[in-house]
Please model this.
Amino acid sequence: MVTQSWPPDAELVQRLCDRDEAAFALLLDAWSAGMLRLARSFVTTNASAEEVLQDTWMAVISGVGSFEGRSSLKTWVYRILVNTAKRRGERESRIVPWSSWAPDTAEQDEPTVDPARFQRPTQEYPGHWREFPQAWPAPEAQLLTGEMRTILAAALDELPPRQRIVITLRDVEGYTYDEVCSILAISAGNQRVLLHRARASVRGALEEYFATVSETPGTGAGR
Amino acid sequence: MTMLDCDQLVELVTAFLDGALDPDAERQVVEHLALCDGCHRYLEQIKATIRGLGELPPGRLDDATRATLLAAFRDTPS
Model:
């Protein structure tokens, strides 16, 4: 999104305070798509996500004068989005009241890969793969088919909300570790646990999908 | 120094990709990956998953919403 001509935050904020419509349109067009996707990870419907987006921009319009520059403007806008979406998500009971980002015991302790995939202590190589994961088709051949998009979107949708929110920011939107800590006010450790489980689940969904489309059993070559 | 088993390695991939492991653990992961095709493949599949997620199409701002917000921007005093 950031191009060579992208204005620095201080300039953008000044222009927004001066009600420069072109500056607002610039932000609206550059950030709304990603914001919508993040909002959708908190709430149950696309319509709700639209409303969260709209409420967020309204809050930005009226509150930009109070932006102090302690984070980037974008992070500040995303924090408003997260707070708006949390309230909305709680109202829709998609998410439990937001007391904490701490993973629950199962998220913290349970293996992310089925223990049955590994050899038991009595076998020749305890803890090692019983069978290697099947190879997937080469990414260039497969990764962006419409079907894969559907699988990925469905896998995200099935994740527990906190895992979905973290993986959406990190892997779908491409925010860095530190940015996600800052946007969500989540600790590094909690973020990593949630991200780790989320990635393992989504990988599992792809694995299942490739297993059903692969027509060459045994070799693992896919095609 | 104990060697990592595969079932332990798969739980370290996220910290490994983030560069968050201590040097000793990181060295063990690298050594394991060098020798184990299964874990190497697992790691590559996690990376492929991340790439795939990064290529999902974004949402789109509805034209009517965009017009409403631009109007609100014009009409709200700063």
